[in-house]
Amino acid sequence: MNDLSFVRTEMLPERDPPPSTTGVIGWLRKNMFDGVWNTLLTIASIGLIVWVLGHILPWIWSPTWNAGSLDQCREIVGASGKASGACWGVIHERWPQMLYGFYPAELRLRPTLAFFLLFIALIPVLFNMISRRMNWFLLALVLFVATFFTASSALMIVVQIVLAAAVLYIGYTLVANSGSDRAEQIAAGARRLPNPLIFTALYVFLMPWLLWGGTIWTPVGAALGFVIGWLVFRLLAPVLGTLTAIILAFAAPVLWWLLLNGLFASAMHAILPFGLEPVESRQFGGLLLSVTIGVTAIAVSLPMGIVLALGRQSDLVIVKSLSVIFIEFIRGVPLITLLFVASVLLNIFLPPGTDFDIILRVIIMATVFASAYMAEVIRGGLAALPKGQYEAADALGLDYWKAQRLIIMPQALKISIPGIVSTFIGLFKDTTLVSIIGLLDPVGLSNSIRADTNWNGIVWELYGFIALLFFIFTFSMSRYSMYLERRLRTDHR
Amino acid sequence: MTTLTDPPKESFRLSMLIYDSRYRSMTIQIVALIAVLTLIGWLISNTAQNLADLGKQPSFSFLGESAGYDINQRLIDYENQDSHLRAAFVGLLNTLLVAFMGCIAATLVGVFVGVLRLSNNWVVARLMTIYVEMFRNVPVLLWIILVMAILIETLPAPRAFRGETPEASMMLGDSVAFTNRGFYVPEPLFSRGIGDVHLFGEAALRFDVSLDLIAVVATFIAGLLISGLITRRADRIQAATGDRPRTWHWKAAVIVIPTVAVLAILGFYLGKPELQGFNFAGGTHMRNSLIALWLALSLYTAAFIAEIVRAGILAISKGQTEAAAALGLRQRRIMSLVVLPQALRVIIPPLISQYLNLTKNSSLAIAVGYMDITGTLMGITLNQTGRELETILIGMLIYLTISLTISFVMNLYNDAVKLRER
Amino acid sequence: MKKTFILGALTVAAMSAGAASAATLDDVKARGKLECGVNTGLVGFAAPDANGRWEGFDAAYCRAVAAAVLGDPDAVEFVPLTTKTRFTALAAAEVDVLSRNTTWTFSRDVDLKFEFVGVNYYDGQGFMAPKNLGVSSAKELDGATVCIQTGTTTELNLADFFRANNISYEPVPIETNAEGQTQYLAGACDVYTTDASGLAATRATFEDPSAHVILPEIISKEPLGPLVRHGDPEWGDIARWTLNALIAAEELGVTSANIEELAAGSDNPEINRLLGTEGNLGEMLGLEADWAKNAIMAGGNYGEIFAKTIGESTPIGLARGLNAQWKDGGILYVPPFR
Questions:
Q1: Residues 6+ apart with CB under 8 A from A291
Q2: How does DSSP assign A48-66, residue by residue?
Q3: Which candidate from A32, A425, A463 shows the least CB-CB separation from B145?
Q4: Helix (H) and strand (E) counts for chain B?
Q5: ipTM, 2 decimals?
């Protein structure tokens, strides 16, 4: 009766969207040719890219890798009938020098190892998503691989076997148990691997030893200084009160380092000689020099920056103004003037007869420079912390230092990590300035290399290579920093 | 149990300096101050001792001695018999010149790139990303050297402009020449000029100020002010009646006519550069070192500014854009009336620090031989006189002053545009 | 906070490592290494090769001094220095001797308190111009753009020359020789001025050296030589007489090839005194008797070093010119070893 229905009872089958809005064509239309203006822009951009690549690629594609001098390059390029071409022979001959400078060729394993270990030491600080087992596994693996590059001896073989066993064992547990299994095991009382931060703390002493060599007892003695400071604090704090104990706990290690550490190291070395062949900092060069200056300066400037940031935030007028004056002065002058100070003035400021070598002086000034910037980064972190955190710490009855140590700093530092990374990137790029005061970093070396009659007249290849080196480093760091920023943001909100 | 009585008057004991929180902060501060002063005193005494050993008493008299070297790029007159102080002053002006030009160019490029990075056009957005990453991740020193090398290698030498069939030719009606020695552009000249004012007589810091230029600039600014008044009147009328009168022709008239009139009275003409002897003569010569430094610094800083601008725009919540769109504003007006004014507040503080960075990075001029304050005072003067302590000290103080001034001025501006929270 | 102390540890290590004193010789011996300041890179005079070994005319002198003092020509720590840092580094005892193509001038000797120990290369400032510029004399350079290295005496000489001849010029300051070369080749400057040796060395590496001329005017005297600090005459003597020994060896025909033979004893008493088989010259200097023999064996005599590093058989191809022995028409004339 009511056959007439005005409403469709069954749906029509879905139809494909018009081809011009999907797939490659749709994407192109939406993103590149959306309107006249956009089309013009796209065409202009593509034209620019083609033009630039059209000039650069033929130049780069030049079979001169094995040339021994610029003249040979010219011959090869001339024979291939091109007007101009790159001369890659210089990179082929000099890249080890660009990376390591004058570091003795047979010892170059050491800085390389220090470099890889740096990442492993940083993992627990920066990547908190890797499990402990993974961390220890990587450490054992790197050490194991490194042993293959050392001269073989009976001791080395034993070390190799031990490391191989460690790699296999930790690797096996990694493969055998997933993360949640492992969590259950731990809950059931399984023993956890030690915190990898232990290695990070050790690395602080390991790195200078690997780079500069010398007896093992110097870094051991330096580490002992901390133990002494900690003991002084622990023993004296109940007797003399916290503040006095803190002051003494700072003073005692300083005395130890200045007066006794040298004696300790030489005495222990006489008893139990063990060390690496010393390398003077003068022999550092190339990228190794940049990385050494950058990493050391940032690592040392972190605690200085914390102190300065706290000083700037404090309500003690004199402390505050001293911090402000220091920070603003350093931030107000260009790094190059500080490097001039390092190269020509620092020795005048120190007691007559002191003779730091230039690289150490540059590291000192770079540290001073970085600490002012670091202080501002950390101050930003402190300021970003909600006021409730400070008040809660007060409400718990924590004193200033306890509040800082347990509540404020861990959070503020975490917020500051992206800022710290970008300060590091900036400093790392700025290490090229040392070429102006005659240190042979990659840029400085490029001048020295051109003073070789074989390579006199080479410009683009060297600069391009250096630019690429820096780009790889800083680009990956900045990507990592961005990733970290995203992660931290979700954690925080 | 508790009784409200005055606390007993304690007699002051020495230990209270440490244990009593009223005095403790004072104690800490005094200890810190004494420590710092001791450190400074120690440094100074070392310095005095060392300088005495070297037989170099600190003295600033070298500043008055004749410099003996020439400076090519200069804003004020200078010759090699002038004093070191004069050379330093030339250098200082050069620093300020490149910093000023750099800040402007970097802002323009930075805003342009920052906005384009958010473009819907995939190619353009990618291209801008490549630009930003390329410039941000390579040291500025390398960029300066590279830009200099590019300028030198790709542009024609002046001798290419010579001959019957020159390989290169001047542009814009033979008035501009791009050579690898720099850019030659026409200079403004006045045939009936009213002359210059000589400030500071014959002192090292003397400089001339062109009255003609002042007259022209003053007229122009007056025109701008009047056009501002016209805008305000238009606003009032719009507020009262809802119609906005057409004002652009009035504005153009009050700005252009008086300025042109003053120019005509002063007999304005352009001095074009001409090929003469080895070089171009006449016109203004912007040396290749200046151009290279300027380009490199502005492109490098622009990459950072682009990121700041992008972040600033992204920080404005989408609701703002949508609300503006709902009010019927057009795309361009949304950007200029709603998004940018708000984004500006986010952008300005980091922008200030980029300006500061640019100014400080201009000290890398030394790498391309641009004679800024680092190149003159802390460069050649230092080398010729051997006065390291004095020259570097003065140089640092000058940079400090510049930096503090920039941050002071920019902070004033920042305070002016800051969100007034109620 | 722990990290502060790397620096602390390093500081202590560095402070115990070296302290300068007046007796440079004792310092060098105690250190077992000579610290020698050289150019960061100047073709033919000092440049590191692919293995990081410094080579060149100035570097060879450093090796000779190390050989004379320590008996080992490789006991040298080369310290690359810029024009800005060279004098401070020497004054602050960062280097024991500066062998960095430095012009001996009154003010450097007297006012900056250094002691030039002699001249190892007589140079003079010249100009190089492309042939097609059509210039045959520096006096025709009115209005020209001149590339010039900053921080050296050349800058002042240039200003003086143009002022004296009342012609104008446009200076283009450059930091390094390599940079100057690029600018000059691209035509960013009309002429390039530096020491004539540097011009020749630079021209030699051009793709077409014959397209460039070195103008006849030499506008200054540039006696280049090694220098030491004021106030340690004994060390100055060692540096001076090592240089003299190299030059005298050439004059006397002592080469690295025949030195072993001659050291066994020869008919010429001066050679015997020089090589330590007669007399006690070494002892007077506070060195071993065979100091000069070691110095000469390090890289050969003056002539050999010259030929190997910058001479006519090298790409740089400098003629001896003024730097020939006085017998051969040059002005190398060393005091007798007696």
A1: A115, A428
A2: HHHHHHHHHHHHH----TT
A3: A463
A4: 14, 9
A5: 0.87
Count of residues for chain C?
338
B102 in contact with A, Cβ within 8 Å = no
Select the residue of B43, B50, B374 nearest A336 (Cβ to Cβ): B374
List pLDDT tens digits, range A371-428.
999 999 999 988 888 888 888 998 998 888 788 888 888 888 888 888 898 899 999 9
Is residue B408 classed as helix, strand or coil in its secondary structure?
helix
d(CA B137, CA C49): 30
B61 contact C CB<8A: no
For the full predicted model, state whether its pTM sits above 0.95: no
DSSP assignments along A369-418, one per residue: HHHHHHHHHHHHHHHHS-HHHHHHHHHTT--HHHIIIIIIHHHHHHHHHH
C316 touches chain B (CB under 8 A): no
Interface residue B139 vs chain A (CB under 8 A): yes
Question: What is the rounded CA–CA span in Å between residue A192 and residue A177?
Answer: 13
How far apart, in Å, are the Cα atoms of A110 and each of A67, A100, A146, A277, B138? Answer: 30, 11, 9, 10, 27
Element (H, E) at B37: helix B21-54
d(CA B177, CA B164) in angstroms, rounded, equals 17
Among residues B120, B106, B162, B151, which one has the least CA distance to residue B308? B106
Tally helices (H) and strands (E) across chain C.
14, 13
Q: Are B111 and B309 in contact (CB under 8 A)?
A: yes
- Rounded to the nearest 5 percent, the helix, strand and coil shares of chain A are 75, 0, 20
Per-residue pLDDT 10s for chain A (493 aa) are 556 667 777 888 888 777 677 778 878 877 777 778 888 888 998 999 999 999 889 888 888 888 888 888 888 888 887 778 889 999 999 999 999 999 998 888 899 999 999 988 888 877 666 777 788 888 888 888 888 777 777 777 888 888 888 888 888 877 777 767 777 777 777 777 778 888 888 898 888 899 988 888 888 888 888 888 888 888 887 777 777 777 788 888 888 888 887 788 888 888 877 888 888 888 899 999 999 999 999 999 999 999 999 999 888 888 899 999 999 999 999 999 999 999 888 888 888 777 778 888 999 999 999 999 999 999 998 888 888 888 899 899 888 878 888 888 888 888 888 889 889 999 999 999 999 888 999 999 998 898 888 888 888 899 999 999 999 999 998 888 888 878 776 544 4
Q: Which residues partner with B184 through β-bridges? A: B177, B285
d(CA A465, nearest CA chain B) in Å: 11
Looking at chain A, which residue has its C-alpha nearest residue C56?
A: A452
> What residue type is assigned to position A29 of the chain?
R
Q: Which of B47, B367, B400 sits opposite A436 (nearest CB)?
A: B367
Task: Give residues with Cβ within 8 angstroms of A122, minimum separation 6.
Answer: A200
Cβ distance of B379 and C186 shorter than 8 Å = no
Contacts of C134 in chain B (CB under 8 A): none
Q: Which residues of B touch A352 (CB under 8 A)?
A: 46, 49-50, 53
Q: Are B69 and B86 in contact (CB under 8 A)?
A: no
Of B142, B364, B399, the CB nearest to A332: B399
**Closest-CA distance of chain A to residue C10, Å:** 8
Strand partners, C144: C169
B149–A460 C-beta distance less than 8 A:
yes
Say whether residue C145 is in contact with chain B using an 8 A CB cutoff.
Answer: yes
| SS3 call for C53 | coil
DSSP letters spanning A441-458:
SHHHHHHHHHTSTTTTT-
| pLDDT, tens digit (0-9, with 9 covering 90-100), for A3-21 | 666 777 788 888 877 767 7
- The total number of residues written for chain A in this structure: 493
